[in-house]
Amino acid sequence: MKQAPELVTANALRRRHLLLGSAAGLAAAPLASAWAQTRPAADLSKTTLRVASYKGGWVTLLKAAGLDNTPYQIEWKEFNSGVQHIEAINAGALDLGSGSEIPAVFAARTPGRVRVIAVSKGDLNNQAVFAQKDSPIKTIADLKGKRVGYVRATTTHYFLHKMLAEVGLSLNDVQLVSLSPADGLSAFARGDLDAWAIYGYNGQLARTKYGARAIKTSKGYLSGNFLVYGNAESWTDEARKAALGDLLQRVQKATAWAVANAVPWAKAQSAETRVPLDALLQIFANRSHDDRILPIVDADIASHQAVADVFSRIGVLDAPVKVAPLWDKTFNRFLVNPA
Residue 116: which residues within 8 A CB-CB, separation 6 or more? Predict the structure, then answer.
């Protein structure tokens, strides 16, 4: 009897974790230790954090993991891009947000409130260049002269440049079409694009609904670093600082829970985002590595600077920038590196 796609993928996920043995359990031990050592002792009941989340993001994750019972209030704000998170922080409207390395590159051009306070190691296989299912395009070199969709000034802009350069091409050698992720999916479905550089759910939907073929993923081209942005003015108050540290721990612990509980996490995400469960399970089954929330190390800052240097060199930035002033290790003590 043929198994349903959900069961097939779920079984693959279970086998993956059996092969990994007790890695998730081993990772949970230092997390639990750090959690016990740094949980806030002060009364935070009058403290309110203003936190940005993507649809199906932190707010959904904390609820699914049973970690949303915070001793402080959270005013959740939904934004769909890291640029919006940073803009809201610099406007004084947010305490915490997140996004890729790219928005913070642009934020480094002018001083503001935003700081990078932690790093989320994310999947690289869900960022890729897709071709139409019946297209003769097989390699990145085949993109020459073709209509290629991307999202300007995002990770897709960066990894598409790197992939083209590797085969002796530049962005000028393709017909670039800058589109939002939703508009890009519609354009790809209509056949208006020969190929599409995209990230996240939309790429998986292109694959499952329209037969898109991933000709290359971003593994080896992106660092996998997704940044947690904080408002530097928020931790001048000790109660707010304690609440922020506690929330970062909860997100770290919830992320570890999601790795060990991929099926219930996918169900929670599907209910919130309306992305089909099968598509989410496929993303989890095919991911390049498990997600983790980690304290800042110097290599993270160097990686961010490398991105800034590339964007400066290809003219996306109007001048070179130094990203180090954006990085702040204040909250490293709240987090533990399970590696």
Answer: 104, 227, 228, 229, 230, 296, 304, 326, 327, 328
Q: Which residues contact 160 (CB under 8 A, 6 or more apart)?
A: 129, 148, 150, 171, 197
Q: Do 242 and 171 fall within a single domain?
A: no
Q: What is the pTM of this model?
A: 0.84
User: Which pLDDT tens digit goes with each residue over 195-233?
Assistant: 999 998 888 889 888 999 999 999 999 999 999 999 999
CA distance 152 to 212: 21
Note whether 73 and 163 are same-domain residues.
no
Distance of CA 171 to the CA centre of its chain: 24
- Contact status, residue 62 vs residue 96, Cβ threshold 8 Å: no
User: Cβ distance 117 to 239 under 8 Å?
Assistant: no
The DSSP 8-state label assigned to residue 222 in this structure reads B
Model confidence at 8: pLDDT above 80: no
pLDDT band at residue 282 using 50, 70 and 90 as cut-offs: confident
Structural domain containing residue 24? 5-122+224-334
> Same domain for 196 and 175?
yes
> What is the rounded end-to-end Cα distance, in angstroms, of the chain?
42
Q: How confident is the model at residue 25 (pLDDT cuts 50, 70, 90)?
A: very low
95 and 236 belong to one structural domain: yes
Q: Are 216 and 131 in contact (CB under 8 A)?
A: no
* CATH number of the CATH domain containing 46: 3.40.190.10
